Every structure is written in C-alpha cells, then in structure tokens.
Amino acid sequence: MTARTITQLAHELREGSTTPRRLLDNALAHAEAAEPSLHAYLALTRELAERQADEAGRMLERDPDGASPLCGVPMALKDVLCVDGVETTAGSRILSGWKPPYTGTAVQRLFDAGAVCVGKTNCDEFAMGSSTENSAFGPAGNPWDVERVPGGSSGGSAATVAAGTVPYALGSDTGGSIRQPASLSGVVGFKPTYGRVSRYGLIAFASSLDQIGPLTRSVEDAAIVYAAIAGGDPRDSTCDPRPLGDPLETLGRGVEGLRLGVPREYMGEGIDPDVRARVEEAMAVLEGLGASLREVSLPTTHAGLSTYYIIAPAECSSNLARYDGVRFGLREDDPSLTEMYLRTRDRGFGVEVKRRVMLGTYALSSGYYDAYYRKAQKVRTVIAEEFARVFEDVDALVSPTSPSVAFTMGDRDDPLSMYMCDVVTLPVNLAGLPGISVPCGFSPELPVGLQVIAPRFEDARVFQVAHAYEQATEWHTSQSPLAATAA
C-alpha cells in the first residue's frame, strides 16, 4: 500500500483482491514500525478503525458500484480535527485527555463515505508553526531524512502520507500549513478556497484564515477527497453554500491555451537557488504543454508576512482565551481563581503559542488596535485586490511553495527565520484563494514543491494545472526511504 493511490486501492477493493480490514492491518503495521523514528502520529485509533473497516466492508458488499472511492481506504487526521470520543489535543498539553462530544463536518463526511481512520497526526501546537517542532509531544521527522523537519503545521499528516502509511490525510492551512509540509515531504497538498470546506469541528487558530484540506499522493486523489469534504454547512456561517461542481472534470483538460503568471516577488530574494531552478524547470514543462507564461507583479507581497503576523496572532489571542482550566482540558488547582488561570495557561501553552497570544493581545489592546490590527486588515484588502487584478490577465499563478527544502531540526530557533518559511504561501490565505503544492524535483535529494494558485472558487483550475504537470513528469511517483523500505 505504500505507493498506491486512492483510485488504485478503490479498484482493488471492488475487484476483491484486498479488503478494508487487510488494508487497515497493513497501515497499522507500517505505522507502528515507522513511529519510533518518525513520530508522525499522536495516537493510533485502532478500535475506531476496526469498526469502520468492518462497516466499509459491508458497504462494499451491499453496493460496490455506488460506494465512494474512499470507502475502505485508510486515512489519518491532523490532531486539530474533532472526532467524537477520541482524544484531540491540537498538539497542546492544555487539551491533554480532552475527548470531543462531536465529530467535525469534514471528518464526518469522510466517515459517511466509508473512510477508515488510522490515527490522529502530530502537528505544531494549535497549528502554530512551520516545522512540527512546536508540538508539545515531540517533533515529527521527515520520511526523506528523519533528522529533518517535515514542515508544518500539518507535518504529521504530510509525513505519514510520504512514509506510505496511508494514501491520504487531512490537515489545516492557516498560512501554508498544508502546502508547505507537502512541499518539504514530497507529497501533494491542497488548500481550498476559504469557505469551501466547513470549519465546524476544527480547533481554531485564526478563524478568518484556517481551512481544511487533503495531503495525498496524487492530484487526482486530492480532488477526490476535496469533493467528499467540500460544500455548505449550516453549522459554519463562513462556509459558502454555492454548488461545488465536480473538481474531477477538469483533470484531463490540460493547460494548452492557459495563461500562467509568475509573480516576480515569489522568485527573488530569499528563494534557495536550487529550489528556484527546479521550479523554473517545472514552468518550462508547463510551457511545453501549451501554457503561456508571463511575469506578473504583486507589489504588496513584502507586507504579507507582517500583515499575517498581526492578524493571525490577534485571532489566536481571541480564540485561545477559552482555554482557562474551567471548562475542559488541563486545570492547575489554586485557591485563587486568577492564579488558577495563570498557572493553567503557563503550564498548558508552549513557547510559540504564548508568543503569538502576547503579540495578538498587544495588537488588539486599547491604543494599538488602529495602529496595528485595523491597518493590517486594510493591507490584507490591498493584497486581495492585487491578486484580483492579476487574475484579470492570467488564469492561474505558479511559484515555489517553500523558499527552501526541509531543514535539520533545531536549525531555525530564531522565530523570524521560521516565519519566513511561509512567505510564499501566506498571501494565499490572506486573500482566501485556492492553492496546491505538487512535487517538482529534488534539491539535491530533498523534495521541492511547485505551487499553483487560482482565483477564489476556481479550485478546479488548480487541479487542472497541477494534474497536467504531474502527468507530464514522474516526481510524484518517487518514494521516500521510509516508504521504499516498507514496500
């Protein structure tokens, strides 16, 4: 199972050459073998998975042709996604032992389709980070080199797919947290248009930026998972109710005649020369397939990082105020209510979370709100308007996903250098656009990702461009050492 896609596994399940229970046993065995060095999972949900595999088997027996392609296929969930009765920590000690009384909408849609949940994956605490080193339960490794980071914050989800444990996993993307680990781990990672996937049941970091999406082995697989989880939801007021359409319809159209923009600001200073070279080679492939490339400019890109690190911490400060030791999660007893609050949050939150809470609280405080938060929201509007103007002349944008390849754990202990990891992904979140990362080579032996960005609600166009590139190359078939060993 270490190299098969959802489509291939669905075919094998229907022809009877395998069963959901057999696939699950394979996934669990591989996960347990890889975990000592990888630490991609915070928990394996064996009992839940066994029940789901048995039910998937019955679904396939009743109606093999009508069953979803996800029926019986193992998967994993980033530990910010709620599952009824399953411990969900968001990578934080403050939620140790907490079991949600409900299941998130996107997750429930997968379960209804017959998905089999192998486990909850490791992540940066409350999804705040770009390396999965901020997890309160220890960092995850990269299947290409376990001494390096898998990216973040959805690093565990990216790592388990790259290691061949499961063919897909869900992550969340606030400033690049699906696409960046996909790039560093050599898999496909898709961030939908903001509002296309319900956030109900997603533990919030920054509510106006967060979006759930898949990490997979192929672009087609990403489209299959997206089709299953997307759509309106009355329990999420930000979820757009307009019809989704079939994202799989565009996969075979190719890129001939499409106008692809190359943002000048995304290819310049700060981008590793080897990464730039691989991305330029990928652009040449797209050009050879009939697309026309032209340089475009997004002049406010330089302000994106500072804008994001005002808005996101401000929203995090508000969202994390609920973790006070009173209603759920960790509680440090103390005779004084105020001291109980302080001790609980001090022990329960890690360094990066505390840093962002303090930044956000400062930006929202009296006397600074207009100078920082309000101004950042205005710049955010300018960034979105610049994207809209560029998309009047081009159909999609292509760029590097990450300015560098996976770095060694501990190499970036300076917060600013870590924040720079998302410099070419976070503008997409600020504007609410769809984006995808697809493997496009190595530098020299570590994966590089190509990012494709499209206008709002043009998610299918992202799949169209990425699939055309993927089918013209073989980078997506490359296996990490951990996956190759398991095979």
Task: Write the topology of this structure.
Elements: H1 6-15, H2 20-38, E1 41-44, H3 46-62, E2 74-78, H4 105-112, E3 116-121, H5 155-162, E4 168-172, H6 179-185, E5 188-191, E6 212-216, H7 219-229, E7 259-263, H8 273-288, E8 292-296, H9 304-319, H10 337-348, H11 351-364, H12 370-390, E9 396-400, H13 415-419, H14 426-431, E10 435-442, E11 447-453, H15 459-472, H16 481-486
Parallel strand pairs: 2-3, 2-4, 7-8, 7-9
Antiparallel strand pairs: 1-3, 4-6, 5-6, 5-10, 9-11, 10-11
Helix pairs in contact: 2-3, 7-15, 9-11, 9-12
CATH architecture of the domain at 6-258 and 468-486: Alpha-Beta Complex
- Beta-strand residue percentage: 5-15%
Helix % is 25-40%
* General form: globular
Q: What is the count of DSSP helices, taking H or I runs of 4+ residues?
A: 16
For the record, what CATH class of the domain at 6-258 and 468-486 applies? Alpha Beta
Helix and strand pattern: HHEHEHEHEHEEHEHEHHHHEHHEEHH
Mean pLDDT: 96
Q: Helix/strand-derived class?
A: alpha/beta
Structure report:
The chain has helices at 6-15, 20-38, 46-62, 105-112, 155-162, 179-185, 219-229, 273-288, 304-319, 337-348, 351-364, 370-390, 415-419, 426-431, 459-472, 481-486, and strands spanning 41-44, 74-78, 116-121, 168-172, 188-191, 212-216, 259-263, 292-296, 396-400, 435-442, 447-453. By secondary structure, it is of the alpha/beta class. The protein has a domain at 6-258 and 468-486: Amidase signature (AS) domain (Amidase signature (AS) enzymes, Alpha-Beta Complex). Helix 2 (20-38) runs antiparallel to helix 3 (46-62) and helix 9 crosses helix 12. The longest helix is centred in the C-terminal third of the chain and has 21 residues, at 370-390. The mean pLDDT is 96.
